[in-house]
Amino acid sequence: MDDRLRKCPECGSKSVITDSKHAELYCADCGIVIDENIVDLGPEWRSYDEEQAAKRIRTGPPMSYRIHDKGLGTPTPGLPARTRRLRGISIDSSDKTLAFALVEIDRMACALGLPNNIKEATSVIYRRAMKKNLIKGRSIEELVSAMLYITCRQYGVPRTLKEVAAVSRSPLKKIRRSYIFLLRRLEIKLAPADPARYIPRFCSKLGLSGEIRERAIEILRDNKGTGVAKGWGPIGTAAAAIYIATVLSGEYRTEKEIAKVAGTTEITIRDRYKELIKRLEIDVLSPGPRPRKEKDKFVGFLS
Q1: H-helix or E-strand containing 17?
Q2: Comparing C-alpha atoms, which of 213, 257, 290, 212 is closest to residue 299?
Q3: d(CA 100, CA 96)
Q4: What is the pTM of this model?
Q5: Per residue in 57-71, pLDDT tens?
Q6: What is the spatial distance between Cα 147 and Cα 118, in angstroms, rounded to a whole number?
């Protein structure tokens, strides 16, 4: 409503009423008609309940990159293929490829338990690659798997490349190759993965308590990123921190059990925890002073 129509020009009252039935604007105090033949901006249909209003509403969901036409197309159900072709409704090969890739993104993301924002961001990366002609001549499954892993790294979601390969139709070696290819051609810069992000999920799979989880994260914080500077993998570093935390707390898990959950090797865990033990003051992280016998036992176990 215009500002000059918010109050009556005759008496100055602000009790201005819109009469949609007679298309008039009048003052409730003095009764003067301020404006007439006003335009009704509401719908032209009537509804008597919420269900009827939802069926008649013409606005759809917001635009989404997870749909090949971004959700802006008008569906025409029931039309035969010949009629759709004559009306120009049929999609070309590039749209079919895009639709297949988006379905694959949704399938793998659901299998990994990823939220919708990860799916949306992965779809955007795929559209970027299409504009740069990086899709033609390459496997869609490999590229989509690599893009999903890149998005997880960008958003800090702890998913390993092996986990992505487990729900993909492509082998790990080819996905890794596509991952390096996309980083170079799309000029994507990824920060080193934080090992602490993997610890809650690994501890949950191992059935460890919250105390173990907090202690493992504390070990990594005390490490101050030295492992990243040395080029350590985040998964092996997280597994080693969990192993040290279990030994210190008494909820012992073998290297084999932790390696199976983390998707790494026992040798990697052994090398990482030896380096961490050399550099960190483990006694500072313990909840309280321990007997000499227990401390000597732990030192002898590591030797």
Answers
A1: strand 16-19
A2: 290
A3: 6
A4: 0.64
A5: 656 566 677 776 665
A6: 10
Nearest CA among 125, 106, 123 for reference residue 115: 106
Q: Residue written as tokens 């970027």?
A: 128
Q: Give the model's pLDDT for residue 164.
A: 93
Question: How many CB atoms lie under 10 A from the CB of residue 206?
Answer: 18
**Cα separation, 235 vs 239, whole angstroms:** 6
Low-confidence ranges of the chain (pLDDT < 70): 1-5, 40-48, 50-63, 68-93, 223-231, 281-303
DSSP string, 191-204: PPPPGGGTHHHHHH
Domains of the chain by start residue, with CATH: 3-36 (2.20.25.10), 93-185 (1.10.472.10), 195-302 (1.10.472.10)
How many angstroms separate the CA atoms of 135 and 115, rounded?
Answer: 25
Give the helix ranges, DSSP H, for 172-286: 172-185, 199-206, 210-223, 226-229, 234-249, 255-262, 266-279, 282-285
Reported as a single tens digit per residue, the pLDDT across 109-135 is 999 999 999 999 999 999 999 999 998
